[in-house]
Design a protein that fits this description.
The structure holds 2 protein chains of 2 kinds. Chain A is α+β, with helices and mostly antiparallel strands. In chain A, 15% of the residues lie in helices and 31% in strands. Chain A has 4 helices and 21 strands. Chain A has a 7-stranded antiparallel beta sheet with strand order 7-6-9-4-1-12-11, with no helix packed on it. A 7-stranded mixed beta barrel of chain A has the order 13-20-17-18-15-14-21. In chain A, helix 1 packs parallel to helix 4. Chain A is globular. In chain A, 52% of the residues are buried. The mean pLDDT of chain A is 96. Chain B is an alpha+beta fold. Chain B has helices spanning 23-37, 60-66, 72-86, 112-119, 123-131; strands at residues 4-9, 12-16, 44-49, 53-58, 97-102, 135-140, 147-150, 165-168, 172-176, 179-182, 187-189, 192-196, 217-222. A 7-stranded mixed beta sheet of chain B has the order 5-13-6-7-10-9-12. Chain B has a 4-stranded antiparallel beta sheet with strand order 1-2-4-3. In chain B, strands 8-11 form a two-stranded antiparallel ribbon. The chains are: A alpha+beta, B alpha+beta. The interface between A and B is large, with 47 and 48 residues.
Chain lengths: 316, 223
């Protein structure tokens, strides 16, 4: 059971929530850029939330399914169409053998996910199906998908059809064109003066074209450091905001390296990472500091919502 | 012994013992990382040492369930304070020493001439000095299997290239200041390349995919 890639799009890969536990070997966890979308869609189609799925950027992938299955797409709204007919995001659709899924136009956000009941099936590497493009390991042969690839799907474990089940609007991430993203202090926040902190939290920053799965390079007002500080290489996370020597910022994303040598002046809270993850070149954002307490609470709020969703979907 | 603990994210915290490359700080980092891994902390995913810090990755929900009214960060920080206090103070033994065959020559030693002229030492002397030490593997990072090793002799230590290469050949053995490293596969990079090894430093299909790990010793020998 599987899908045939008819058109690969600009970057389409097999991902899940990444491989944790190997930082000491320099092996970065990787995984999807938009963890909220991936988890919601997997739960919706009856999968474990960490099941493998397809991440596609725009221009997006075009796939043909070779057997009956059930899918849901979401994350960015890239105008999904099945056999030429537009279908809803965040909704389960029953797929017949031969059906073709494509994405016609970008309406909101920049990367979409295809979750399939049964999950995408690739050999696991270090306990995960995510693609490590740099190491050429994991996912589909460690590389992006190309036309002609046949991607296997696991056996669907659902006892009945989920056709039409949908994620309610209140649970869907609030993607927007100019989001405020919340951050906590980083390891080297002490390098920012009060004034610089104010500039950081009151200025718009723009996502530049030099942005990819490893990091989003931003442009905005130059942020000076209080003093010269040579940082010894230390850990970095998905969401770490680095201050570069030229006074500009980089936010590390899903394919970030395990360590870095640039000052970490803030870290995005996980609740707001999906908002940043769906931005593209030209989009703007602002930052706002919150406490670790608030950051943890917001993260746990999502966990709670996801659990409620699982209960609601199971209680049919 | 001083240290600070700060959140790296809601799912990780970092214990920083200092901001320098020193065998003592690195020993401390590795010893504490091991002690944390063995402490049976709730929700622990990994305790990973770097030069002079340890980062602890955890499952926020699992820690929060154990932490009563505190934040997960405060709860773990408190537990880690105890662990650090009790951790062994003595230095560590080297885990294992790995011999790396090194090829020298025009094709492999891309920056050897530069290093030699910068430091006022002949290329042969650069190599002789480079081969004369056993290097400590301080940490892995930057790439899967990329080992940060040291300390390179002052006489040949040379800073990074002004302009990084878009493609450093796989296996390249290189220097940046008093650090040395081996590129496990082709990658962009700014370190000064003095030679190349044919040894696979990273093999994803193996159970232990990295040839060297933190705490190992490394010697280079001419192939």
């Amino acid at each position: 059971m599987g899908m045939l890639i008819k058109k690969a799009g600009i970057l389409t890969t097999v991902q899940d929530l990444g491989r944790e536990g190997y930082s000491r070997l320099g092996i970065n966890p990787g995984g999807v850029l938009d963890r909220a979308a991936a988890r919601l869609l997997n739960v919706l189609v009856g999968n474990e939330e960490g099941a493998a799925l397809i991440e596609t950027h725009f221009p997006a992938v075009e796939v043909q399914f070779d057997s009956k299955c059930e899918i849901a797409v979401g994350g960015a709204d890239l105008t999904p169409c099945i056999n030429g007919r537009e279908v809803s995001n965040w909704t389960v659709h029953t797929i017949a053998k031969g059906d073709v899924l494509k994405f016609r136009a970008k309406r909101l956000g920049n990367r979409a996910y295809i979750a399939v009941s049964g999950g995408v099936k690739v050999p696991e590497w270090l306990g995960s199906s995510s693609t490590n493009l740099r190491a050429v390991a994991g996912g589909f042969d460690g590389r992006r998908l190309v036309a002609g690839d046949a991607v296997k799907i696991g056996r669907c474990g659902n006892t009945k059809s989920l056709q039409g089940k949908a994620i309610s609007h209140s649970l869907r991430p609030c993607y927007g064109g100019f989001p405020k993203v919340r951050v906590i202090d980083g390891g080297e926040s002490f390098l920012l003066s009060k004034d610089t902190r104010k500039t950081f939290t009151t200025s718009p920053f723009k996502v530049t074209p030099e942005s990819d799965r490893m990091g989003f390079r931003l442009s905005g007002p130059k942020l000076p450091m209080k003093k010269n500080y040579e940082m010894v290489t230390s850990a970095a996370a998905f969401g770490t905001v680095q201050l570069l020597p030229d006074g500009q910022l980089v936010v590390l994303m899903a394919d970030h390296q395990t360590t870095g040598g640039y000052p970490r002046i803030a870290t995005l809270i996980s609740a707001d990472l999906p908002l940043l993850a769906q931005l593209g070149p030209g989009d703007k954002l602002t930052f706002d500091f919150v406490t670790i307490d608030e950051a943890e609470s917001l993260s746990l709020d999502f966990e709670r919502d996801l659990n409620l969703l699982k209960l609601a979907l199971n209680a049919r | 012994m001083k240290y600070r603990i700060f959140p790296l994210s809601e799912n990780a915290l970092t214990i920083e013992f200092g901001n320098e490359i020193s065998p003592d700080l690195n020993d401390r980092a590795m010893t504490v990382a091991d002690a944390i891994a063995d402490a049976g902390l709730p929700g622990l995913i990994e305790a990973s040492p770097a030069y002079s810090s340890v980062t602890v990755f955890y499952d926020l929900s699992a820690v929060k369930r154990a932490s009563a009214g505190m934040t997960a960060f405060a709860f773990l920080s408190s537990a880690i304070d105890s662990i650090v206090r009790k951790a062994r103070k003595a230095g560590r033994a080297v885990e294992k020493t790995v011999e790396i065959p090194l090829r020298i020559g025009k094709e492999f030693s891309l920056d050897l001439e530069y290093i030699a002229s910068e430091r006022g030492v002949s290329p042969d002397e650069v190599i002789e000095i480079f081969l004369s030490r056993t290097y400590r593997v301080y940490m892995l990072g930057f790439l899967p299997g990329f080992a940060y090793m040291g300390d390179v002799d002052e006489r040949i230590a040379t800073g990074r290239r002004a302009t990084p290469r878009l493609k450093v050949p796989k296996g390249s053995v290189a220097i940046a200041g008093r650090q040395t490293g081996i590129y496990p596969f082709e990658s962009p990079g700014g370190w000064q390349v003095i030679g190349r090894t044919s040894l696979e430093m990273f093999e994803p299909s193996k159970k232990n995919p990295c040839r060297v790990e933190p705490g190992d010793g490394v010697r280079f020998v001419i192939e």
